[in-house]
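Sequence in, structure out. Go.
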Amino acid sequence: MSDVRSAGLDKGSLPASNGRFGKFGGCYVPETLMTALKDLGEEYERAKKDPEFQSELAFQLKEYAGRPTGLYFAERLTEELGGAKIYFKREDLLHTGAHKINN
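Output:
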């Protein structure tokens, strides 16, 4: 589709080239927090390039959050079902809950 208007779509309902939606990129927070959130985002972009930050982040993810979670070979289930080997990735065993540390 080369022309958004011809499809009857609002340009704001489609992601930009960076994958974000609209002026605030899909951030659903009060307007009064947008300046602080923008500042935080800029600082995080700088921190991502800092080897010391990356080292500390990796340490915290491993030692505190339990990341990355390992795979567990489900030997009895594999035998029971036959065929493919079955592995479990036990996200439920993470210290902070399965998804919280990712968000």
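Check: The first strand starts at residue 71 and ends at 73. Residues 10-49 form one domain.
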